[in-house]
Write a structure and sequence with these properties.
Blueprint (H helix, E strand, L loop, with lengths): L7 H21 L17 H30 L5 H25 L11 E3 L10 H4 L19 E3 L3 H10 L4 E6 L5 H14 L7 E6 L11 H12 L12 H7 L3 E6 L6 H14 L6 E6 H11 L7 E6 L3 H11 L6 H11 L22 H6 L3 H11 L18 H19 L18 H16 L2 E2 L2 E2 L9 H4 L5 H23 L3 H21 L19 H40 L6 H38 L11 H34 L2 H22 L5 H14 L7 H10 L3 E4 L2 E4 L2 H10 L15
Parallel strand pairs: 3-6, 3-7, 4-5, 5-6
Antiparallel strand pairs: 1-2, 1-7, 8-9, 10-11
Helix pairs in contact: 1-2, 1-20, 2-20, 3-6, 3-8, 5-6, 7-8, 9-10, 11-12, 14-15, 16-26, 18-19, 18-23, 19-20, 19-23, 20-21, 21-22, 22-23
């Protein structure tokens, strides 16, 4: 990237030249006049000076924009081979750490994986020709073109055998199908972890991605979308030493094995587009794992007119009542009690149906009282629900085999969903041990948790998504945009609040005089409008990271300071005329009221314009240069830091909060110090410190929240405050979501939260009351 480093020195020279020219203008404009202002006739006209300075600033800004554009084009160098290897190993480490922790929180091995059996489907039209998938499956003497079937059998309890079979296929592509709650995502996660654990240096890194986030109109090629997701979900890949193109190269050269989860969560037209885009994107060596519900996948390939090339397909077999009873037995104490013994005996004695019945169809009464329980536990989701709700100490499983109370598997599942939140809260009391991932940090009311999660589920279900409506991904930084928090009224209220606060602070600082209040209102109006107009853009920001390492980044630091110099100088010059004009008008208005001058307002206006130019040139150096330095440092720091921890929702929230607080404190300090020194030198140190703190806080708020990148945390604060006042969510949303994750109600997928099971998400969304029926009883927040 050496070509991109040649422009910034002469940019710094241009900035220095602009500063010299401003100094010349300052020399031609006397700071202190004599008499009635005739001295202005012996110096440069104020309008000429102002025009000269503004013209220089415009030219400098244009030069900076051109130089930045050129540097970005020249700086995108292709990473070297050792850099790609480093990035690949780093990504593998992050993915492994991320999903191992998630597997622990999901209790996938507690006490052992649920033994779901898998096999290739009977419907031959779901899968490509056997010779395209696994040439060894075709008999050696078979006639060319003769049909051959590919038969696989696998088990979730023996994931190593499935991984070996997957590696022996021609192109290592697999589609995992099944109905709701049959363990598709769990199998994909198990396979991902095993492939990572046994991966060689030449093999690609498996990365799990929700396919519902792929907009094929925006990213027709799968590799382009993967590169975008890698950049957002794994910020370590944006570390300066890896370059800006490493994610694109990893995705484009086959170093990534995409594990695409949830094709069925897209609307039908988007599903068809994904099938077509996959076949167009996958080259000869590109690998793939895809999960989907069977019906949706069948309809998608039928509409697309093609299967996924060279991809094997697996479908689950229902768990037998005996295997479900065996798994529950292993989850219970050695002596579970008479009620559980009767329930397990009835479950084992229930004959399995010929096929899994529809959820709304009552089972055949001749199969026994545990028929609904047997049909529900035929899926891993149903078995997990029974285990979570009823294996707690003291729980009575007798209702599970009551056909009058739960005549269908759907009725029993709804009952278990209703009891899920109270069950996990009761069995997992709060704990302070950071090493205990299954304990929440706070005690929660189950009714409030149900209401808050119901609101989130309903909110996500009604959000626009690629090709349709609804999403599974809960991104904390998107709440401001999806809840439409920042309306024009919000920006106006923010502007007025900042204006009044600034005016009051100025008046208290300089004395409760008309002039001080006028200066304060003028400065507050300038700053308030700037911040208020920029506030809606917060909702579009993504989380940021502060990297303060200077080693091998000094050139980037200088470049960022140089590019922020025009903004700092312009801010200083803009503040001066506002203050000067306000002061002049205040003096003239006061003189007019006291009848000291016949044309007090006119004199005040003329003096205010003259003082504005003077103050503007002074403020350029008192405020502008330190502010430009602070803005440049924070723009340089707002780059993702290379970390050995995978990005999670909580980590992205914490790092963005740290970045924004650092930006606020840095800008505040950059204004406090010079103002305190200048004012304290002219008047008194204590007075200078007070003035410096006032100006520093105002500038810190305005430039800390209005400018720069990654202001998602500020938007989050305002959004959660408004939603908590409406009773929809707790004030401390992120700690609440973290506790729900620890309780097993949510899962993480990179920086996103998702409900652990899509069926639970849909159930909460469907049963959540509309907003106008939400009572005030839910307004108490944690």
């Amino acid at each position: 990237m050496g070509k991109g480093k040649g422009w910034w020195p002469w940019l710094a020279v241009l900035a220095a030249v602009a500063g010299v020219l401003m100094l010349v203008g300052l020399m031609f404009t006397p700071l202190f006049g004599q008499g009635n202002g005739d001295i202005w006739e012996r110096t440069a006209n104020p309008a000429q000076v102002a025009g000269f300075v503004l013209a220089a600033a415009v030219a400098l800004v244009g030069t900076v924009r051109w130089a930045r554009h050129r540097s970005r084009r020249l700086g995108a160098a292709v990473p070297a081979a050792d850099t790609l290897t480093q990035a690949k190993e780093l990504l593998a480490e992050l993915v492994d750490q991320q999903w191992k922790e998630e597997a622990r929180l999901r209790s996938l091995d507690d006490p052992d994986p649920i033994p779901v059996r898998w096999r290739t489907p009977d419907a031959a039209e779901l899968m490509d020709h056997a010779v395209n998938i696994d040439p060894s499956a075709v008999p050696a003497g078979a006639r060319a073109g003769a049909p051959a079937r590919l038969w696989w059998a696998a088990s979730s309890a023996d994931i190593g055998a499935l991984a070996d079979r997957f590696r022996r296929t021609r192109r290592r592509r697999l589609v995992i199908l099944g109905g709701p709650g049959t363990g598709k995502t769990t199998l994909a996660l198990q396979l991902l972890l095993h492939l990572l654990a046994t991966r060689t240096a030449e093999e690609p890194v498996p990365v799990l991605l929700p396919v519902a986030g792929w907009d094929t109109r925006r990213h027709p090629r799968l590799q382009d979308w993967i590169a975008d997701r890698l950049t957002g979900d794994y910020p370590a890949l944006r570390a300066p030493e890896l370059g800006t193109e490493v994610a694109r190269i990893l995705a484009g050269r086959g170093h990534i094995l995409p594990v695409l989860d949830g094709l069925d969560e897209l609307p039908p037209p988007a599903q068809n587009a994904v099938i077509t885009a996959l076949n167009r994107s996958l080259g000869g060596d590109d690998q793939l794992i895809l999960t989907s519900r069977t019906a949706e996948f069948t309809a998608a390939i039928s509409a697309a007119g093609d299967v996924i090339t060279s991809a094997a397909v697996l479908e689950p077999r229902p768990l037998t009542p005996e295997s479900a009873a065996d798994h529950l037995t292993r989850c219970l104490p050695p002596a579970p009690g008479p009620a559980w013994q009767q329930t397990l005996t009835a479950l084992r004695a229930t004959p399995p149906p010929d096929q899994t019945p529809p959820d709304q169809t009552p089972p055949d009464p001749a199969r026994g009282p545990a028929a609904a329980l047997a049909d529900l536990t035929a899926t891993p989701l149903g078995l997990w629900l029974v285990r979570t709700v009823y294996t707690a100490p003291g729980a009575d499983p007798t209702p599970l085999t009551d056909p009058a109370r739960f005549p269908t598997p759907a009725a029993l599942q709804a009952h278990l969903f209703d009891q899920l939140i109270p069950a996990v809260i009761t069995t997992r009391p709060p704990g302070d041990n950071a090493a205990e991932p299954f304990r929440p940090r706070r005690r929660h009311d189950p009714a409030q948790v149900r209401h808050w999660l119901g609101y989130l589920a309903h909110h996500l279900t009604t959000q626009p998504a690629p090709g349709g409506q609804g999403t599974r991904d809960l991104a904390w930084w998107r709440l401001a945009a999806t809840t439409h928090t920042f309306t024009p009224t919000t920006g106006l209220a923010f502007s007025l609040a900042l204006t009044l606060t600034t005016g009051l602070l100025m008046a208290l600082t300089f004395g409760l005089t008309f002039e001080a209040l006028a200066i304060g209102i003028a400065a507050g109006l300038t700053f308030g409008l700037a911040a208020g107009l920029m506030a809606p853009s917060w909702a579009k920001d993504s989380p940021g990271y502060a990297d303060l390492r200077i080693r091998r980044r000094s050139a980037a630091l200088a470049r960022n300071i140089a590019t922020r110099l025009p903004l700092g100088l312009a801010a200083g010059f803009a503040a001066g005329p506002a203050v000067g004009l306000a002061f002049g008008l205040a003096v003239g208005f006061e003189a007019r009221l006291e009848n000291e001058l016949g044309d007090g307002l006119g004199v005040g206006l003329r003096n205010g314009l003259r003082l504005g130019v003077v103050f503007g040139l002074v403020f350029v150096f008192v405020f502008g240069l330190p502010l430009a330095l602070a803005l440049g440092i924070m723009a340089w720091a707002a780059t993702p830091a290379q970390t050995h921890h995978a990005t999670t929702p909580m980590s992205s929230w914490r790092t963005d909060r740290r970045l924004n607080l650092l930006r606020f404190s840095t800008i505040t300090l950059s204004v406090v110090l010079p103002v305190t020194f200048v004012v304290g030198f002219v008047f008194a140190f204590v007075f200078g410190l007070v003035v410096g703190l006032v100006f520093g806080l105002v500038f810190g708020v305005v430039f800390g929240v209005a400018f720069g990148r990654h202001r998602a945390w500020w938007a989050y604060l305002i959004t959660t405050w408004k939603l908590a006042r409406a009773g929809h969510l707790p004030r401390r949303l992120m700690p609440f979501l973290d506790d729900c994750h620890r309780l097993g109600l949510l899962r993480t997928a990179g920086p996103y939260y998702q409900f652990r099971h899509a069926e639970f998400h849909d159930y909460l969304a469907a049963t959540h009351p509309p907003p106008h029926n939400t009572g005030r009883r839910h307004r108490r927040s944690t």
